[in-house]
Design goal:
With about 375 residues, the protein is mainly α. About 55% of the residues lie in helices and about 5% in strands. Strand 2 and strand 3 (about 315) form a beta hairpin.
């Protein structure tokens, strides 16, 4: 998309004002052309980061699958270490772990990685707006390439009218408000009861089984979301993701903003057409929208040099620097968790085997938002 739109150059643009064409196009050797494109093209750079993180998530998924199969076999199958990265898919447990940490000053040993992954994601947003959504989030990547597929197949995507867009976008904030309200009202004993509950100890396993053994209703909902995402850009992320709502709020604190120089802007509107969040970039001096994911698609297509850039307090920030912030913060925070012993949980192999055999017990079921009753031996 970026390369195609970049090639659209307004005829009246003076040659001295045009941004130089990327040098990778003249390179004949494919591997050097690929490396140069990742270095010079913001879209290719982001795609490289996306693919690397998707590969990491796939590896985590495969490892966790083998871990679950070991547990469900009662230990008969070869043991595979549980990958702590799976806790990145436990946002509710992560939020509760954050509240528990703020109240007690200690990192719980049930899902410690979830807390550090949440902290990394929030810090990325404070540093570079919702760049986690466009660079790292596997759901965001899937959503993006669904609407790209839809546009390739049907020639266009649908634009939700503004009178409907605003109410739909508010849904994710209502969901976030509900979760935050439910967690904020939990006192110390309630937090400790949830963190140490049998249900929380197997939350990652229950999540895996939910998707591995989809009910007919859940399958219909997921297929419905996928179909909608073919036609509406980032439908899940834009309308329903409470994580995205949280990161949008955190992103307001970011010093990095897409900045337009009105004096040199030729009003070609390529930036607005390229924006997957339907932000009217060509009318903004600085993009403050909570929907901006710092995807850099608008920057990639602007044909005028030094006109549309990422800036922080007046200083230009290159796309490579944005990618470095995203990857650096994530690797730095998760690396800190590993270095300080807050990555692996404290649940032993023997305890996991015991809990696998009890997954159908009432205390391991979702009790309509309440912690199922359990005793000291549970």
């Amino acid at each position: 998309m970026a390369a195609r739109l970049y090639s659209i150059r307004p005829k009246k643009l003076a040659p001295e004002l045009r941004r130089p064409r990327p040098g990778y196009r003249g390179e004949r050797r494919w591997y050097r052309r690929l490396a140069l494109r990742v270095w010079q093209d913001p879209h290719a750079l982001r795609l490289a980061v996306q693919l690397a993180f998707v590969a990491l998530c796939v590896w985590i998924g495969i490892e966790f699958h083998h871990f679950v199969e070991w547990g469900r076999s009662g230990g008969a199958r070869p043991f595979v270490e549980r990958p702590p990265g799976v806790e990145g898919f436990l946002p509710i447990s992560a939020l509760i772990s954050l509240k528990h940490w703020l109240v007690t000053g200690t990192v719980n040993r049930i899902h410690p990685a979830a807390l550090f992954i949440l902290l990394a994601i929030v810090l990325i947003s404070i540093g570079a707006k919702k760049a986690f959504c466009s660079f790292l989030c596997p759901v965001g990547t899937l959503s993006e390439y669904l609407w790209r597929l839809g546009r390739a197949a049907f020639g266009r995507n649908l634009t939700v009218p503004r009178w409907l867009d605003y109410p739909l976008r508010s849904l994710k904030y209502l969901l976030l408000l509900f979760f935050v309200w439910a967690i904020v009202k939990m006192d110390g004993p309630a937090l400790a009861a949830f963190v140490g509950s049998p249900y929380n100890k197997v939350a990652d396993i229950k999540m895996y089984l939910f998707f591995a053994e989809l009910s007919a209703l859940a399958l219909k909902v997921l297929v419905g979301l996928a179909v909608v995402s073919l036609f509406v850009k980032n439908a899940w992320c834009r309308f329903l993701c409470p994580y995205g709502a949280l990161l949008g709020i955190a992103g307001w604190l970011s010093p990095l903003k897409i900045t337009r120089t009105a004096r040199t802007c030729i009003d070609c509107q390529l930036c607005t057409r390229a924006c997957p969040s339907d932000i009217r970039v060509h009318e903004a001096k600085r993009v403050w929208s909570d929907e901006c994911t710092s995807c850099l698609e608008c920057v990639a297509v602007c044909p005028v040099k030094d006109t549309l850039e990422v800036r922080a307090r007046g200083r230009r920030v290159s796309p490579r620097a944005v990618a470095a912030i995203v990857a650096g913060v994530f690797l730095g925070v998760t690396g800190l968790a590993m270095a300080t012993g807050h990555w692996q949980n404290a649940i032993s192999r023997e305890e996991y085997l015991m809990r696998f055999q009890r997954l159908d017990w009432p205390m391991y079921q979702h009790a309509r938002g309440n912690v199922p009753a359990y005793g000291p031996e549970d």
